[in-house]
Amino acid sequence: MEVRTRFAPSPTGYLHIGGLRTALYAFLFAKKHGGKFILRIEDTDRERLVNQASEIIYRTLKDTGLVYDEGPDVGGPYGPYIQSERKDIYREYAQELVRRGAAYYCFCTKERLGGLRTQCEAKGKQFKYDKHCLSLAPEEVQKNLDAGVPYVIRQNIPTEGETTYSDMVYGDITVPNSDMEDNILLKSDGYPTYNLANVVDDHLMGITHVIRGIEYLSSTPKYNLLYKALEWDVPQYIHLPPVMRDKHAKLSKRHGDASYEDFIAKGFLSPAILNYIALLGWSPSGNQEIFTLPELIDAFDVSGISKSPAIFDVEKLTWMNGEYIRALSEEEFISTAMPYFEQAIDPDKFDLPLLTRLIQPRLEVLTDIPGKVAFLGKMPDYGIDLYNHKKMKVTPESALVNLKEAYPVLRDLPEFSETALHDAMMGLVQRLGIKNGQLLYPLRVAISGVAVTPGGAIEIAYLLGKHETLSRLEKSIELLKKQLV
Ligand code: GLU
Predict the structure, then answer these.
(1) Which protein residue has the closest C-alpha to ligand 1 atom 4?
(2) Which atom of ligand 1 lies nearest, measured to the CA of 22?
């Protein structure tokens, strides 16, 4: 039997981290077993639809490499893969369930239901539909239907007994039938609810393993009653632990918690995000933490899925992102970093391989790049206090002396290469009988204007080029002269 899993998001906005994890696990499980991964868009809650949300889902899955074998925009033998295009199918099965006694037409008005709700609340009970319409005579039902009275179709849950199934993560789940209620399967607008649509589609699409969030764990017995009524095989279930913001609060779309796109915008790399979320609720058997997608497929195993909530740890993700940044080749780094360079400098003016060597090793998120290189584009205003360095015995006064010595040496350099700069500065240090730092530290401040730079004075001078280096140095000497009188 071929394994078939599906990711079934509702198009209500950006793909949130928990949703992407569900997609990832469904993908990994299918691929691990040589099976198919299917995308289905669950858009039957018409009020929650968001424009373009499906396109965001397609794009995110493609960007992250979670390639689906069947889906709305790629087709497949079990389409359509968008629920709003399957309305007739749901109606047909809702009617079949009515014929089999597992569902019934309900014509109750809002007013009646409102009254019922008030009664339940007055008794301190949770609202539960009272099966009023289950006892309507068939002729009455037909009369109402012929007269066009609005209706819904409700599931007819047995009032006694219990329903049990075995989840691959959480084990046996048993729910007394009296705890369930006769939920609506087909709404008055003709759209199915999730309760009906997930069952019909998972069956018709040949889904063998349903992988989804824990919020469906305890309602699954209700869905299983529908499978039973239709004489269909119940799929295997893999419910996933929640992803929490902290010990108390769940990450949730409605609270505006982080989506995949948010993290991309914050400078995280797609494979790093995917790698991190793979470990949110699943532990590999060994100690390996950095996984490529093919390695994840290989390592993934349902027995490693945890029952307890996973806490989203941004620090860990940030660390992992740094690892991914460092693993990029020079060429990959430059093209990934380019939009961030462009925010602060004109990249054409700089030696990008050198810049890469200087910033790639300690970078954690791409959005830190502009801040790190901005001084190259424009010398910031700075105070001469910056020249004070106790350990190196540098003061603004000593800086001025040594910078004045450095200026003509740099000006007269015939070639402004890294080696030439290095040799010239080392020569000067010797001639002045000072320590390297006593020249290089003030020089770095004088041409960068910032306390912390990627790389030292020589590299920065080389990156800036002769003209810019001399012009900055001159201004800094002027500043020191002015402030020291
Ligand atoms: N549309 C549901 C959701 O987004 C899918 C649940 C499922 O995977 O069955 O939560």
Answers:
(1) 9
(2) 8
Q: Which residues line ligand 1 (CB under 6 A)?
A: 8-10, 42, 198, 212
Are 118 and 230 part of one and the same domain? yes
Q: Which of 113-122, 190-199, 467-476 has the lowest mean pLDDT?
A: 113-122
In tens, the pLDDT along 391-436 reads 999 999 999 999 999 999 999 999 999 999 999 999 999 999 999 9
Domain for residue 409, yes or no?
Answer: yes
**Going by CA atoms, what residue is nearest to atom 3 of ligand 1?**
9
pTM score over 0.90: yes
Per-residue pLDDT for 87 more than 90? yes
| C-alpha–C-alpha distance, residues 275 and 27, integer Å | 13
Place of tokens 């030292």: 456
Average pLDDT, the chain: 95
Cα(212) to ligand 1 centroid in Å equals: 7
Q: What CATH number did the domain enclosing 452 receive?
A: 1.10.10.350
Active-site residue identified among 31, 36, 253, 372 = 253
**253 in catalytic set:** yes
Q: What is the C-alpha separation between 230 and 241, in angstroms, rounded?
A: 30
Q: Exposed (0-12), middle (13-18) or buried (19+): which is 329, by Cβ within 10 Å?
A: exposed
Q: Are residues 178 and 303 in the same domain?
A: no
Q: What tokens does 448 get?
A: 């960068």
Q: Please indicate, yes or no, whether residues 195 and 163 belong to a single structural domain of this protein.
A: yes
Q: Which domain holds residue 392?
A: 379-484
CA 417 to CA 188: how far, in whole Å?
77
Check if the beta carbon of residue 160 is closer than 8 Å to that of residue 177.
Answer: yes
Residue 457 inside a domain? The answer is yes
Atom of ligand 1 nearest to the CA of 211: 8
Mutational test site, ligand 1, from 5, 50, 198, max ligand atoms within 8 Å of CB = 198
